[in-house]
Amino acid sequence: MEPVSIGARLASSIVVPLVRKLFVTDGAGAGLVDQPVRVSRLVSFTGEKRTLSDSELHKIARELVERSAQSTGVSERLPAFEQYAVVNAVADSLRAVGRVDMDDVQAVQLGYLELSRRLRSGNQAATLGLSAAAVLLHTNVVDTACLHILHFFTTRSTFVPRTLVEQSRRIEELSSKIDTLIMRTPSPADSSFEDRYTRYISSKYGKLTIFGLDLSGASEAWPLDAAYLSLDATGTMVGDVPLVLPAEQVLAGRNRVLLRGVAGSGKTTLVQWLAVSAARKDLDERLLYLYGLVPYVLPLRSLTRGGATLPSPDEFLSAVGCPIAHAQPTGWYDRVLTAGRGLMLIDGIDEIPENEREEARRWLRELIDAYPKNHWLVTSRPSAVREHWLAGEGFTELDLAPMSRDDVAAFIKRWHEAAGSADMYAKELLYAVRAKQELDRLATNPLMCALICALHRDRRGYLPDGRKELYDAALSMLLSRRDRERGIYKPGAMRIGESHQVQLLQKLAYWLIRNGRSEMDATDVVDLLSQALQAMPRVAEQGTAREIYRHLLVRSGLLLEPSEGTTQFIHRTFQDYLGAKAAVEGLDLDFLVGKAHLDQWEDVIRMAVAHARSGERIRLLTGLIEAGDASQDARHRLHLLAAACLDDATELDPAVRADVQHRAEDLIPPRSVAQARALADVGPVVLELLPGPEGLTDDEAYFTVLAATRIGTDAAISVISGYRSSDDRRVRAELALAWSRFDTDRYAEEVIAHLHEDDLYFVVSSTRELDALRSLGGRSRLKLTAPLTPEQIMRAGHRLTELWIAADLRCSWEWLSRFHRLSILTLELPLPDVDVTSLEHVSSLRTLRLPASATVVGSEALPDWLQIVRTS
After folding, report:
1. Per-residue pLDDT tens for 631-685?
2. Cα-based distances in Å from 406 to 117, 259, 409, 766, 769
3. 520-521 sheet: strands from edge to edge
4. What band does 35 get if pLDDT is binned at 50, 70 and 90?
5. Distance between CA 577 and CA 473 in Å, rounded?
6. Kind plus residue range of the DSSP H or E element containing 236
7. Could you give the 3-state DSSP secondary structure of residue 266?
8. Which residue, 435, 286, 122, is CA-closest to 828?
């Protein structure tokens, strides 16, 4: 969709009656003709059939200009003399239609934009001396008029049948789309405020804080366009393969989505990306569904700070601290939401206490009941809400997939480019991540990748093993080494040792955790520091509690102010890490066990096991086992949490380890997606407990494979390979989908090569995988999830009979004719329009599968034997 087409904001209901007056009507008995008709014979303001006077033509031009000026708000900024000049210019352009030296078919072939250009170029002097706004208004009005003129030609009864039917369809569809998008444009009374608001959104969320970049001397705030890495979202199987789509497309064709993802997986970054994309309006075709939507970024941790009740729509902006909230026009929010223009981005269901989530769901349900036509995205950690938690409200549930190996490589390269680091550091780190199983397992989300990049650069290539060791090193890097090595300290400056900073930060973190919050008021921070400083005289003598708070905020690298007067940790994982340390040092072990059934405490307890000494670790794990034994409702969660803690237990009594593993064995094999996800969260330690396929039901085998593939380390391949001979299509589809998470060649040799091909699409996301398939003799069914070139896809070989394309390849389709056996093609593209015209050259094709929501262009050019099937 060209932006200029949207500029005039003239609905078809306004333009069509005016355009019809420009042409003669078909007389009685008019029928189909065999030859095109000259445009000059059709107009009503020249020749013998003249029925429209010059004054009436001028009146039509005036109404078009006035309507457009009012709908865009230009009338408020355009002097009367300029608007009158635009009317004259539009009248001259419309008059030029009678001088067009072509027939109606040729005009339709020309296209409305080229026709408009020709009409306007005939009298360029009409806009000389006018402002840019006046010239743009003239252009937009004539463009829109030409669109409807050509549409009028194609709908006349005497238009040559079967001629340029496709161009006619495109014009009609374009007209319909313009009407839809016009409905998303604000009224003149609101446009000024919306311009301010969208500029604010673009500024506030247009940069991303990337961990560790400031240590290199680069800005820690990275432009979102450069930082954003498109990850995949996955869902339940659709037809023959699991659903896989780019995360930024989760709301394309879906109005309500609950998106789950582990800590650091990129949920909040996706929210920022969608908000900024909608605010900027300069969208490509893939994101056109966001055009005209007004983003509301609603982080629940901020909305519920201090026990506040969830806001009503008129309070959305003030509740998140938007500085221009007071300027919103009266009733603006209601006009936006009633028209279905709201992009509701509700971030972090997991970041409010568990006992408040039902109230949040009621709040959400009431909002949807009141304003059902909007787009809604809700994010959460996987364990925070049960499966189908929002199914009753019509939400589709999707998961953010772990980063593939290609994603990790791309992130490492971008991080080092932004940091200005030598390319050798990026290459060394990529090799280390691929070579070390421990690092490979940790580098599955953007936060951990950034942490690993920063530590690798800071330590000149040396990286510790294990999650706790990585966090220990990161704290040391942030709290002491960076200031010392960058020469920040000056005589007389406040200097607080690393251990003292940790003690102070621990108290803040533990307060947040105990109160079920992710943010706290700055006044509460100062009060907590005041209490803590009473036991730290050497620190207290360096300044007041408020001064020390400012020092921690500016220099620690661990705190930030999301809005004035509030404080939070840069990421929830650092809060959990420090809070767990405080709990262990305070011997709150029984308290931790008592909270273990709450999802907000899961990572805290895992970190506590890592911090604990041997005896304390035994108390924690024994407490989890006993609490699980005593609870019917929380037994599975507590026993699985104990099993997950084994990965962080560097030293543990063998008898306790055996007890934990014995309880976990009772939960294996998994019998649901939720259980499979929970087992995957336990980590590689669960791999040795997962059974082989013998004796399992089809469901148990599928959920076991689901758990193993989500663990994602190469150590899982030995478990996965035991299922490679399965006849169950779900198992084989999951094994084919998981390829990108493992070493390409090894997985191809041990898994892909042995999968039964019957009814199975092999999912391909890189040229390396295509080459591996070719070395295996090729496959007859492929699903492409990456934007490969036709030349690269040709490596698939000539066995191909069915192809599923789920990425925008930015090309036409005639090259598919080289696959002489290709009979079924599925186009699941992230685009509103699918142009299939060039498929007429693919003579072997018999079935074309297209999404139900896509607009098809060019279907009339296809042969009669090609069947088009719509998929949901």
Report:
1. 888 888 899 889 888 888 888 999 999 999 888 887 788 988 888 888 887 777 7
2. 46, 22, 5, 8, 11
3. 520-521, 566-569, 559-560
4. low
5. 13
6. strand 232-238
7. coil
8. 286
